[in-house]
Amino acid sequence: MVKILPSLLAADFTALGEDIREMETAGADIFHLDIMDGRFVPNISYGLPVVEAIAEKASIPLDVHLMTQEPGQFIPEFSGMGVDMVSFHVEATPHPHRVMQLIQSYGMKAGIVLNPHTPPDSIRYLLPEVDYVLVMTVNPGFGGQEFISSCVDKIRELDGMRKKHGYDFEIEVDGGINDETAGICTEAGAGLLVSGSHLFSSPDWRKAVAALKG
């Protein structure tokens, strides 16, 4: 079953608690939290205090996406807040396996993120142990970008590797997800869809979430 992950970076931060409640009522499955440090990506989002505030308000799981250098930082803190999933970019560390194990040691699911230019083969040896792979279908750092259609082949390739070897990792997609691209991604093998600008700008969130699920 397809799960929808609203990206809270697109929410109204002056009414964040209200947006969280309304999006949960609309049928969201998991909240996606983008953490940017201004170094790995050319933008800064929010840090631990905001994540903690979100965790106190949310009743569905939280998926933290680290767009940061040194992604091994603050893993214990995320766990203590009740975060369920943490993903990091394979390009951000020389020791991705170590970071993956650290996340899992705190009882959270570990995800590896691939930038649009990064091939699935670069994480081939992590796939037996990783919990999910996040395929970026835009360049990370800013919302509202256009979907990069060539990344769909990457989703298919990951799905093929999963089936061939009997792996059980999930495939998550982030960037330019709307009514049209959602179906393209799920058909290619994705089961977790992140949507920010499209969802939060929709006049009816319940219908928007349902449409993405197909």
TrEMBL record:
Q: Which reaction does it catalyse?
A: D-ribulose 5-phosphate = D-xylulose 5-phosphate
The UniProt entry, under PROSITE patterns, shows:
RIBUL_P_3_EPIMER_1 (PS01085), RIBUL_P_3_EPIMER_2 (PS01086)
Annotated cofactor note: Binds 1 divalent metal cation per subunit.
Q: State if Isomerase is listed as a keyword.
A: yes
Q: Where is the signal peptide?
A: none
Active-site residues, as the UniProt record annotates them = 34, 174
Q: Which residues bind a divalent metal cation?
A: 32, 34, 65, 174
Query: Recorded E.C. number(s)?
Result: 5.1.3.1
- Tell me a GO biological process for this protein: pentose catabolic process
Keywords for this entry? Carbohydrate metabolism, Cobalt, Isomerase, Manganese, Metal-binding, Zinc
Pathway given for this chain reads: Carbohydrate degradation
Q: Which domain of life is it from?
A: Bacteria
Q: Known HAMAP family for this protein?
A: RPE
Similarity comment:
Belongs to the ribulose-phosphate 3-epimerase family.
- The entry's protein name is Ribulose-phosphate 3-epimerase
User: What species was this sequence derived from?
Assistant: Salinicoccus sediminis
What is the gene name? rpe
